[in-house]
Design brief:
Helix 1 runs antiparallel to helix 2 (40-71). The two termini are 17 Å apart. This protein is an all-alpha fold. It is built from three helices and no strands.
Length: 82
């Protein structure tokens, strides 16, 4: 399977874990507001640290993927399984 030079490599396991992290934060937030009886601001304070860590990790991941494409190493890394 040939890849285009500007195609961002799809790292399914990492992207799946990040997506699951966002889903878990959303589930906890909704559960706290709906069943826990907390106000939205209080529930946000509870999940704020996890959400900020996910946002920071997402930014680092996207920077890594874009840097790979710019430097031209995405094709080499994807063939080696990295």
């Amino acid at each position: 399977m040939s890849k285009k030079k500007n195609e961002i490599p799809w790292r399914k396991n990492v992207l799946l874990l990040v997506g699951m992290g966002y889903a878990m934060v959303l589930i906890v937030f909704v559960f706290l507001v709906w069943k826990g009886g907390k106000e939205a601001a209080d529930a946000y304070k509870f999940v704020e640290a996890a959400l900020m860590a996910l946002v920071g990790g997402s930014l680092a991941l996207s920077k890594d993927l874009v840097d790979d494409v710019i430097s031209g190493t995405s094709d080499e890394n994807s063939e080696n399984g990295e």
